[in-house]
Design goal:
Layout lengths: L17 H11 L4 E4 L5 E5 L1 H4 L20 E3 L4 H10 L4 E6 L2 E7 H14 L24
Parallel strand pairs: 3-4
Antiparallel strand pairs: 1-2, 4-5
């Protein structure tokens, strides 16, 4: 991939209690917590939005509140493909995998860091212009144009 991704992941299982998930998000400070099966298959994600109005009740599991998994890109994918996935996910994150195994997340913070690195590496200190084909932009309904 060649750009910085978040590789310090903490994943939880769909059958874990919601209270545990809330504690994990609080303790780690992570905004995006991938949900994986015991076999390591990504099946969802928890975000502050998915947890916003949750009043944990007894026997409530992560599966009750998780969002579907965001787009998944290969660790060798070009940046434009990863950004397109990020936009498709409405700016939450993109799962990054190698050989079918989750190895990281690409988040908005990662993209900001990438932009800063690209600007720093540029002779004039500016970001290169990207064509519309490289970076599809969603319209107000989230549809790519």
């Amino acid at each position: 991939m060649g750009y910085t991704i978040t590789t310090n992941l903490y994943t939880i299982r769909p059958n874990n209690p919601v209270e545990l998930a809330a504690d994990v998000m609080h303790w780690t400070g992570f905004q995006h917590v991938p949900i994986e099966t015991d076999a390591g298959e990504p099946v969802g994600i928890l975000t502050p939005l998915s947890m916003a109005d949750v009043e944990p009740v007894e026997d409530m599991t992560v599966a009750d509140v998780m969002l579907p998994p965001p787009p998944i890109v290969s660790a060798t994918a070009p940046l434009g493909e990863a950004v397109a996935g990020f936009l498709e996910a409405a700016g939450t994150c993109v799962f990054v995998e190698t050989d079918g195994r989750l190895v990281g997340l690409l988040t908005g913070v990662d993209l900001e860091r990438c932009a800063a690195e690209m600007a720093q590496d540029s002779p004039d200190g500016e970001l290169p212009q990207l064509g519309e084909r490289d970076m599809p932009t969603p319209n107000r309904r989230g549809e790519k144009t």
